[in-house]
Amino acid sequence: MTRSPTAAQRGVIDAADPVTGRLRGTEAQLAALVKWGFAFRHPRPPHDRFLTPAGHRIREAEEAGTPASGPDPGLGAEAGNTASAGVFAARVGGEEAGTDAGSARTREVRSAWQGLLELRRMTNPDGAVDRPCGWERTHLVQAAALALEAAGHRPAGADLVGYRVRATPQPEAVAVHEPDPGALRACAATLEAAGWQVGEHNDARSRARYVLASPRRA
User: Fold this and answer.
1) E strands of the chain, at which residues?
2) DSSP state at residue 158
3) Which of 24, 42, 46, 72 has the fewest CB atoms within 10 Å, i.e. is most exposed?
4) Among 183, 192, 199, 184, which Cα is nearest to 215's?
5) What is the rounded CA–CA span in Å between residue 37 and residue 1?
6) If you ran DSSP here, which 8-state letter would residue 145 be given?
7) b/e sequence 123-150, b meaning 16+ C-beta within 10 Å
8) Of 76, 174, 159, the residue nearest 119 (C-alpha)
């Protein structure tokens, strides 16, 4: 479900700590922001609330004077979904033609990636940002696709060569397909730098090369 924050909620979002995204407000305001996906409750005491990627985008849109998108269902959409009705979703490759592009999309992706790094910092037990967090382990395709798109890699389209991120039968592993060998190696390097374990393999049927990636645990 998507909605826009109320004026009071926008005030709380705008007043969030500019670095950590920590929120201050009444219990009712903070609970509402969590309910609608603009904030999350930290699992450790004192259980402060922090902006989610969607909350960060709301604040950035306010600062830029542009319309803000709705809350991020996951960053929370299931793998394979595309952006619609103002909801952000990382591009996994193969989306229909006409998907938005340009500077607005670049800002959304950058904001989502920064929000994800903040989720890592706040939810990894040691506060590490160089290793995937719990959300990424339950949204593998979306997480890998966001890392690739944030690094500037091109997702495949109807008539466009580029990466495609797909689920695999293996637990905690995704496959990244890219017909250009150099671009495939670049995707592998990006994921490795983002905290994923990667390896190149040959498809058993087509013999095409692809990258198998899993979130690193330590």
Assistant:
1) 39-41, 49-51, 164-167, 174-177, 196-202, 209-215
2) T
3) 46
4) 192
5) 9
6) H
7) bbeeeeeebbbebbeebbbbbbbbbbbb
8) 76
Question: Is residue 142 within 8 Å of 74, Cβ to Cβ?
Answer: yes
Here the tokens at position 36 are 């609608």
Three-state DSSP state, 44: coil
CA 188 and chain centroid, separation: 18
The DSSP bridge pattern shows strands 49-51 and 164-167 to be unpaired
Is the pTM higher than 0.70? The answer reads: no
Which residues make beta-bridge pairs with 33?
none
CB 59, CB 51: distance < 8 Å: yes
Please check whether residue 172 is in contact with residue 214, taking contact to mean a CB–CB distance below 8 angstroms: yes
Note the pLDDT tens digit of each residue in 81-110.
Answer: 333 333 467 899 987 654 556 777 888 888
Write down the residue that tokens 């374990």 correspond to: 197
Cα(95)–Cα(154) distance, integer angstroms? 12
List Cβ neighbours of 114 (8 Å cut-off, separation of 6 or more). 53, 56
> Tokens 């798109």 identify what position?
149
Q: Which pair of structure tokens corresponds to residue 35?
A: 């309910």
Write the pLDDT tens digit of every residue in 171-192: 899 999 999 999 999 999 999 9
All residues at 6 or more sequence positions from 101 whose CB lies less than 8 Å from its CB, including other chains: none
Q: Could you give the CA distance from residue 15 to residue 206 in angstroms, rounded to a whole number?
A: 54
